[in-house]
Amino acid sequence: MEDKALHILNSTFGYSEFRDQQQAIIEQLIDGRDAVVLMPTGGGKSLCYQIPAMARAGVGIIVSPLIALMQDQVAALKQLGVSAAFLNSTLDAASAREVEQQLLCGELDMLYVAPERLTTERFLNLLERAPIALFAIDEAHCVSQWGHDFRPEYIQLSILHERFPAIPRIALTATADAPTRKEIIHRLALENAELFVSGFDRPNIRYSISQNQGNAKEQLLRFILNEHENEAGIVYCLSRKKVEQIAAWLSSKGLNALPYHAGLSAPIRQQHQSRFLSEDGVIIVATIAFGMGIDKPDVRCVAHLNLPKSIETYYQETGRAGRDGLPSDAWMMYGLQDVIMLKQMMETSDADEAHKRVERHKLQSMLGFSELTTCRRQALLKYFDDHLEQPCGNCDTCLVPVETWDATVVAQKALSCVYKTNQRFGVTYLIDVLLGKDMARIKQFGHDRLSVYGIGKELDAKQWNSVYRQLIARNLLSVDVEGHGNLRLT
Ligand code: ADP
Ligand code: ZN
User: Quick check: 9 and 51 in contact, CB under 8 A?
Assistant: First the structure.
């Protein structure tokens, strides 16, 4: 069986060896057992079900929610001489019937189906009359309400296990934190499946995160000039306005920087994107609108001038660096202002409360990640349930260990200051009170008479800022966005 898989890999797909856990996953299915696969985009998930579909007798049924992707895959397989077809809403009735006929005759190796069609009684009956090799459920996170791409049709897919208990199933996804993964296993009845998590590490990417002390753009410029002059890079910002400002600033310093955001006309965006792809040393300054489907292997750095809204987003965006495997940087600079802005964007969106709760949790995890004093790669991999035995030696906290100290007393002072001022003020004001600043505003509120006034002179404003960030990252304080970013005790 093993030889058969390798033979298909060589002769049909033209690759000499399996990557990572591909072989183990393929053997699992060929042996008739179930698998849950977590692998990042580009990791090579498709082969994990395509090869067993070919190696086993019968047709492999692949469930995919993305019609365009389905068609691309089928076209690619046909090119390789594999007998593959798809069934979705783009086919007319006659073509659909023809595919169904091929399915019944056992002429297909693989059939891609949209979930809403697969779960119809009519189609399930058809499947009962056809020889089936396996079921592959692609984009399996769509079954989870915890994720962002929830699709109700996916819930129905547990029926595959009920109707076809003897046929092996494989569920695959690139984005699954622990709660999502649990939901996939539970909802698809994959409790007995083996879990394969692999390939999330991008060892050539060096992660570093630091705080914006008000000079982020100068720091960015210095970083680019020192480390990545004349190399391709992407700079992510949260707002269109900031994208424009940063692109203009970098250009004024002689760099080849171009803005990219949804407010620009389509031809301009197209032009900037193709210059990025074809010219050397172009830096794209962009909102999150940029990057989907961009496959440029030699992006040497991805910089964030704001906090991304989740670790998934951070991983995905930084993952656009160094696809060629050569040393690359993921560089980020952020401030507490970003947390306030992101929370405001979240709270004012028209998503429902359950969705907002998930988003808040994801942002909190991102903030915690940013404030880490231990290896970032280990934490990042842990988030995706992948793991790394030793600290990586290629992230900022590994390269320049963060000095930690017992902050019990200062944390008490910081929290007390929040409480005594009635949880109505932001970090800057709180620090002014702790430092005992002589300010009209403080006097006006009578806060110069509080016991916390001036009790924090052992630290400077920058250090207090770091204390407050740590307290927020540890969820001991929360930022109230309905007010003006005032801190509250949790
Ligand atoms: P995913 O679905 O995980 O995003 P794909 O299955 O599309 O990833 O694979 C990404 C790329 O890697 C494809 O171009 C694929 O042909 C290639 N690939 C996958 N497995 C191997 C392998 N064992 N050897 C070489 N290339 C591979
Ligand atoms: Zn590290």
Answer: yes
Residues with C-beta less than 6 Å from any ligand 1 atom: 15, 18-19, 22, 39, 41-47
Q: What is the pTM of this model?
A: 0.79
Give helix 353-370 / helix 311-318 axis angle, nearest 10°: 60
- Give nearest CA residue, ligand 1 atom 26: 15
- Which value, to the nearest 10 degrees, does the dihedral of the CA atoms of residues 332, 336, 339, 340 take? -140
Q: Which fold has domain 205-399?
A: Rossmann fold (3.40.50)
Q: Which atom of ligand 1 is nearest to the CA of 22?
A: 23
Nearest CA to ligand 1 atom 15: 44
* Ligand 1 centroid to residue 328 C-alpha, Å: 21
Give the tokens for residue 28.
């699992």
pLDDT for 209 equals 97
Same fold, 205-399 and 408-489: no
Question: Mean of the pLDDT values across residues 317-339?
Answer: 93
pLDDT by residue (tens digit) across 436-474? 999 999 999 999 999 999 999 999 998 998 899 889 888
Q: Where are the beta strands (DSSP E) in 66-204?
A: 84-87, 110-113, 132-137, 169-173, 194-197
Report the CATH fold assignment for 2-197.
Answer: Rossmann fold (3.40.50)
| Closest-approaching ligand to the CA atom of 388 | 2
Overall average pLDDT of the 56-60 stretch = 96
Nearest Cα residue to atom 25 of ligand 1: 15
Q: How far is the CA of 197 from the centre of ligand 2 (A)?
A: 20
The answer to whether 137 touches 157, Cβ cutoff 8 Å, is yes
CATH number of the structural domain 408-489: 1.10.10.10
- Burial class of residue 36 in the structure, from the number of CB atoms within 10 Å of its CB (0-12 exposed, 13-18 middle, 19+ buried): buried
DSSP one-letter code for 192: T
pLDDT of residue 483: 64
Percentage of the chain modeled with pLDDT above 70? 98
